[in-house]
Amino acid sequence: MIAPFRETPAELRSMAHSDVAQVADIERRSYDFPWSHGVFRDCLLAGYHCVVIERESLVVGYSILSVAAGEAHILNLCVDPNYRELGYGEQLLDEILNRAALAEVREIFLEVRPSNVKAIALYEKKGFRQVAQRPAYYQAADGREDAAVLSKVLKRSG
């Protein structure tokens, strides 16, 4: 009897300073204009909710969430290009949404490039809707690219 194929499980955990080099490497391989090693270090120092997803002791993705004044902002969510379409982005997003709910956040926001259709599809699947557009928000090879601002209400006020 042939055993069914099983994807190697991945585990979520808090990002540590020792993860920053791997995280920055994933970022560099994912974006033309990546965050620097220092930005990730500063996010940890600022106390943001920084999470990695690990598979066989290898960091394959990460997310960074800022929470303040009843709102949350997804600052970054990325999966290594070699490990995309395996559900890791969704696992990271679910962790973010759970963390925001625990913090009793009313609404969660993010910016995303309109050209990033796979990310937008995931966010929409999880109930995010576009609420605004930020002109020339992102640096791009041919100048600047707008950002779509998405939000999801987690807790009704009142």
Describe the structure.
The chain is an alpha+beta fold. The protein contains four helices and seven strands. The model has no long low-confidence stretch (mean pLDDT 93). It has one domain: Gcn5-related N-acetyltransferase (GNAT) (Aminopeptidase). The longest helix has 15 residues, at 88-102. A seven-stranded mixed β-sheet has the order 1-2-3-4-5-7-6, sandwiched between helices.
Explain briefly what this protein structure is.
With 158 residues, the protein is of the alpha+beta class. The chain contains 4 helices and 7 strands. It has one domain: Gcn5-related N-acetyltransferase (GNAT) (Aminopeptidase), CATH 3.40.630.30.
How are the SSEs ordered, and which strands pair?
Layout (H helix, E strand, L loop, with lengths): L10 E4 L5 H11 L6 H10 L2 E7 L2 E11 L2 E9 L8 H15 L4 E6 L4 H9 L3 E12 L2 E11 L5
Parallel strand pairs: 4-5
Antiparallel strand pairs: 1-2, 2-3, 3-4, 5-7, 6-7
Query: For this structure, what is the CATH homologous superfamily?
Result: Gcn5-related N-acetyltransferase (GNAT)
* Percentage of residues in strands: 35-45%
> What Rg is obtained from the alpha carbons, in whole angstroms?
16 Å
Q: What composes the largest sheet?
A: 7 strands, mixed
Helix content: 25-40%
- What integer is the average pLDDT? 93
- Would you report the number of β strands? 7
Q: In order across it, which strands form the biggest sheet?
A: 1-2-3-4-5-7-6
Put simply, the count of helices is: 4
SSE series: EHHEEEHEHEE
Shape: globular
> Any idea of the CATH class?
Alpha Beta
- The poorly predicted ranges are none
CA(first)-CA(last) distance? 58 Å
Number of structural units classed as domains: 1
Structural class: alpha+beta
Named at the architecture level, the CATH assignment is 3-Layer(aba) Sandwich
CATH topology: Aminopeptidase
